[in-house]
Amino acid sequence: MTFDKVYQYNFPTIIRFGAGAIKELPDYLQKNGLKRPMIVTDSTIAALPFFKAIVIDLQTKGISVEVFSDIHKNPVKSDVYKGTEVWDNTSRDSIIGIGGGAALDVARAIVMRVNHREDLFKYDDLIGGDIYVTNDVPHFITVPTTAGTGSEVGRSAIIADDETHQKKILFSPKLMAKIVFATRH
Question: How many CA atoms does the CB half-sphere of 5 hold within 13 Å?
């Protein structure tokens, strides 16, 4: 394997990886009729040149991008609620999580919360909350910027309570990304 071309795995999420794989994102969105994605990331990633290049590539193709980057390093419930408010107020049609585990967990939790508006922790897997994740979710794409946990292909998000810092696990197969674009930056 060389890193100068794009490869693909399907297990069960499609994973496109290799140099230039991220350049496929605008065409993928257009092919799927998605024109208004919300990108969820952290403030550090949002300031980096590779991230800005992704946004410019999307905008050049006529795709309206909303960036939500107001998240903590260890994601908390209020991050998810703030992101859902951005979703509600900007008429988005898909969510793209770009970053490490925190950004991808917040993105995944927002994906769930869009059409599941009970208290977020009602969906805690440790108390059987996954049975309540029954509604459709927005089209979800991940772009990992770190390696190790596999969060980009996961089906759960770990979110802490703002006050107690107790972590909750939100889980459902519905929370899996439709596609992953993994690339070197």
Answer: 4
